């Protein structure tokens, strides 16, 4: 009798334990199932986003960027902020593979080769029309120096631009004259 | 912080506009963004840079004048202290305590008592007298040291090219 009353609680404990065990077993595949989802997320990282961050911070490793992007769900702004805040990016685990890896050496060597020659100042400041206009009036001295500082913001801006243009045009004229002098002086 | 920086930049802009140093024009490209400037520097006379105008972009940090701006030439400048991408490497643009080689005096480096004007004047004299202790452009430095005539020819050609001749 005494043994039997002891057995009922034991049976209850056994049932509870086995129920928990079954539940645990059933829950496990679900948890494991969420892992491939995480791996999928890694694949979804847009290489363009990595490029975007890498362009902003050329000193950073693309792999570090990709890892940080993966961890924050491809949030470029968050990664940028993190770098700007001075918190460095974490070093990704060795198992981490960069999505569509693009070898950095090629892009780095390609940059200087593709580096376009800088446009000249006349093109840059759109001065070709003023160049011919000013060539005629080279003899007449430039207008008396206006006061460069103005209380009016747009006027200031215009003054600044005018001073820049004058500086370039003056240099160009001077160089042209020098060349002319050289050419006419050479045969003599 | 940012507002005190832009106030200071505005003051410097005013100073540079009303009393510009010889051969230097500088100011913000637009007053909407006081932290991005453009400067024109005239090539110093008596050097191969003579007659040239060298535009450069200055980017100021939000904590200016605690930290120095960065400076990048917008035309090709063949010079031992200018990187191929135009970035200028000069001691006044380096924050104090940021010199791993310890060849620069602290007094030469950036401090809040420096100014845009001082930077631009320093860059102008740098054009005249390269410092080949720490070349940014090793090839140019080598040429400057060993084949001065070739170096000066490249510089002169760049000047002509930049003025559209």
From TrEMBL, chain A:
Compartment list: Endomembrane system; Endoplasmic reticulum membrane
Pfam families, per database record: CUE
Domain named CUE: residues: 45-88
Stored InterPro entries: CUE
Basic and acidic residues compositional bias, start-end: 142-163
Residue ranges crossing the lipid bilayer per the database entry: 6-26
Family matches, as CDD domains: CUE_Cue1p_like
Region (Disordered): 90-120, 133-163
Single GO cellular component term: endoplasmic reticulum membrane
Keywords attached to this entry: Endoplasmic reticulum, Membrane, Transmembrane, Transmembrane helix, Ubl conjugation pathway
Gene Ontology MF terms: ubiquitin binding
Family: Belongs to the CUE1 family.
Protein name per UniProt: Coupling of ubiquitin conjugation to ER degradation protein 1
UniProt source species: Pleomassaria siparia CBS 279.74
TrEMBL record, chain B:
CDD domains per the UniProt record, alphabetical: UBCc_UBE2G2
Coiled coil: none
A Pfam entry, by short name: UQ_con
MF (Gene Ontology): ATP binding; ubiquitin conjugating enzyme activity
PANTHER family: UBIQUITIN-CONJUGATING ENZYME E2
Similarity comment: Belongs to the ubiquitin-conjugating enzyme family.
Name of this protein: Ubiquitin-conjugating enzyme E2 2
GO terms of biological process kind: ERAD pathway
Keywords: ATP-binding, Nucleotide-binding, Thioester bond, Transferase, Ubl conjugation pathway
Entry's EC annotation: 2.3.2.23
Record Gene3D superfamilies: Ubiquitin Conjugating Enzyme
Ranges of residues in domain UBC core: 4-164
Active-site residues (renumbered): 89
SUPFAM superfamilies noted in UniProt: UBC-like
């Amino acid at each position: 009798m005494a043994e039997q009353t002891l057995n009922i609680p034991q049976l209850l404990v056994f049932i509870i334990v086995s129920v928990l065990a079954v539940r645990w077993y059933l829950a496990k595949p679900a948890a494991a199932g969420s892992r491939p989802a995480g791996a999928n997320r890694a694949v979804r990282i847009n290489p363009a986003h990595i490029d975007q961050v890498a362009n902003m911070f050329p000193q950073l490793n693309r792999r570090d960027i990709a890892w940080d992007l993966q961890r924050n769900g491809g949030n470029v702004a968050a990664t940028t902020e993190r770098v700007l805040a001075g918190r460095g990016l974490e070093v990704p685990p060795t198992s981490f593979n960069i999505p569509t890896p693009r070898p950095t050496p090629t892009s780095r060597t390609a940059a200087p080769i593709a580096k376009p020659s800088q446009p000249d100042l006349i093109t840059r400041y759109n001065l070709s029309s003023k160049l011919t206009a000013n060539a005629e009036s080279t003899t007449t001295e430039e207008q008396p120096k206006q006061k460069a500082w103005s209380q009016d913001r747009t006027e200031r801006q215009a003054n600044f631009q005018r001073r820049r243009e004058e500086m370039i045009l003056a240099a160009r004229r001077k160089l042209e004259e020098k060349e002319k002098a050289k050419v006419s002086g050479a045969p003599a | 912080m940012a507002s005190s920086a832009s106030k200071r930049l505005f003051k410097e802009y005013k100073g540079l506009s009303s009393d510009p140093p010889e051969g230097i024009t500088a100011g913000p490209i637009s007053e909407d963004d006081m932290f991005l400037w453009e400067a024109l520097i005239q090539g110093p006379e008596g050097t191969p840079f003579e007659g040239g105008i060298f535009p450069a972009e200055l980017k100021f940090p939000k904590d200016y004048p605690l930290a120095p701006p960065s400076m990048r030439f917008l035309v090709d400048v063949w010079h031992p202290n200018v990187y191929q991408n135009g970035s200028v490497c000069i001691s006044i643009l380096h924050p104090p305590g940021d010199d791993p080689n310890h060849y620069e005096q602290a007094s030469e480096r950036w401090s809040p008592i420096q100014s845009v004007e001082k930077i631009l004047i320093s860059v102008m004299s740098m054009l005249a007298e390269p410092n080949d202790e720490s070349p940014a452009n090793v090839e140019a430095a080598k040429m400057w040291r060993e084949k001065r005539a070739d170096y000066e020819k490249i510089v002169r050609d760049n000047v002509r090219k930049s003025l559209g001749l």
